[in-house]
Amino acid sequence: MNDPTRIKGTLQAGTVGEDVLTVHRLTDATRTATALAGPCRRPVCGAGRADEGVTEWLRRINCRACLTGDPEM
After folding, report:
1. Cβ contacts of residue 23 below 8 Å, gap of 6+?
2. pTM above 0.85, yes or no
3. Sign of CA dihedral 37, 28, 24, 70
């Protein structure tokens, strides 16, 4: 599948699970759980559970931890 809007290794914005107000910086990741194994997009800050879905958006990132790169915020 050749999708020009998704370039491997690029950062994009998105929300996790039911929280549609906090927009995170997303990056490529790899799930290790057997049922969910494989590549995926995950927040830089580590928000959300591994089984929660990520929805990509063309929205401004507003997660303070993603903006500063500090997962402890």
Report:
1. 13, 14, 15, 57, 59, 60, 61, 62, 63
2. no
3. positive
